[in-house]
C-alpha cells in the first residue's frame, strides 16, 4: 500500500505541469499526499473492519460511511467535483463514472485477498458505489488483479502483462515512448494546450499506462520515474503503478521512511495494522 501512496506523493507536484527531463528528485520535500492516498487508506480501513465477513456480506453502507468520513475530513486534498458531491451527500448514489478514481484507491484489495476471484469481486464492490460504469469497474479490477499477480512469485512481468491484456482487453504492448510522442512545442500557449490534451483521467487511459510503466521498469524507483514522466494525471498514474511495483519489487527503506513521514498518524496506524494483517494472512496461506 505504501507503494501507491509514494507514487501519489511523488506525482503530486507534477500534475498538469511539464515534467523535468532526466532523473528528477524523487524524495522531494515539497511533495504531498492527495485524494489518492486518502481513499487508499479508507479502502484499507474498510477491509480491516470487514475481515470477518464473507465477500457476499460486505457492507456497502460501511464502505460508503468510511469513504465519506475520510473524504470530508481531508476535503482539500484534490477530490474531483463528482466525488466531492457524492462524499458530501446525505443520500449518495453511484454516478456512472469511468474515471480513474476507482483504480487509484483499490490497491489494498490486491494485497488483502488470497484468490483471484476474491480480488475481482471486492474490487468491483469498492468501485461501483461511485464508479458503476463498466470501465470504472474494469479499471479497479485490473489494478487490484495486477497487484495480486505481482505479489505471486511464480509470474514474470511479461506473464502478468499478457494475462491482464487478455482479460481486460487493454492495449498493453504499445511502449510508453510511442505513447508519449508529442508535437514540438513552440510557445507557452501551445504548451498549455498540449498539457491539457494529455490530461486524461479515464480508467481506460490511466490504468494501461500505469501497468506499462511497471512493465518497462527495472526497479521500484524506476517504475515511479517512468509513471510520472508520462505526464498528465501524474499522481494517479504513479499511484497505480507504485502499488503494482511494490508488490513485485518491494520498496527501499529510505522511500518507506520518507513516505511515512509525509502522512498523518491516523494513516500510519491503518497502514501498520493492515501490514500486520496481511502478514498473518500470508503465513496462514503458506501453512
Question: Explain this structure to me?
Answer:
- With 287 residues, this protein is mainly alpha-helical.
- It has one domain: ADP-ribosylation/Crystallin J1 (ADP-ribosylglycohydrolase fold).
- Helices cover 64% and strands 0% of the residues.
- The protein has 16 helices and no strands.
- The protein is globular, with a radius of gyration of 18 Å.
- About 6% of the residues have low confidence.
Would you summarize the structure shown here?
By secondary structure, the chain is mostly helical. Helix content is 64%, strand content 0%.
What labels would you give this structure?
single chain, 287 residues, mainly alpha, ADP-ribosylglycohydrolase fold, 16 helices, 0% strand, globular
Overall mean pLDDT: 89
**CATH architecture type:** Orthogonal Bundle
Uncertain spans? 181-197
Q: Helix and strand string, N-terminal first?
A: HHHHHHHHHHHHHHHH
Shape: globular
Helix content: 55-70%
Q: In the CATH hierarchy, what is the superfamily? A: ADP-ribosylation/Crystallin J1
Instruction: Provide the gyration radius in Å.
Output: 18 Å
In CATH, the topology is named ADP-ribosylglycohydrolase fold
Question: Would you count the extended β strands for me?
Answer: 0
CATH class term: Mainly Alpha
Q: Count of helical segments?
A: 16
What is the secondary structure topology, with strand pairs?
Elements: H1 2-11, H2 35-49, H3 60-73, H4 81-88, H5 101-104, H6 107-112, H7 116-128, H8 134-150, H9 157-168, H10 176-180, H11 188-197, H12 203-216, H13 220-229, H14 234-249, H15 253-261, H16 265-286
